[in-house]
Design goal:
single chain; 145 residues; alpha+beta; Alpha-Beta Plaits; four-stranded antiparallel beta sheet; 32% strand; elongated
Amino acid sequence: MPLYEHVFLARQDVSAQQVEQMVEQYKALIVEYGGSVGKVEAWGLRTLAYRINKNRKAHYTLMNLDASPAAVAEMERQMRINEDVLRFMTLKVEAHEDEPSAMMQKRDRDDRRGGRGDRGDRGGRGERGDRGDRGDRGGRRFGDE
């Protein structure tokens, strides 16, 4: 059977448990058609590049599928009907990757760094983080010169 990578976006109003239930529902559908679901990665609630149906964020989920085209078509049909699914995309691939996807690797890198926006030790700023004494700047004259 062909191999697929499938990503879908669920509305921000939906809880993480409801997204898991949707994943289980689609897994059962694929198994019913004689296929199998490999790795499932929940990328979490992420900001969208643009608003989709008045949503600024969405729950992203990746599924690796080994299924017939009929099974994938039925799953996509059910996703079109489901109003909690904003977008989905299915790609046919030659082989599935065993290691975490690029999105999960990015999250791990951010976690090691200390979170987004953490600049760490800025150095050269003293104990309080200020610039320190700038010394005498001399007199200022405005408009005379």
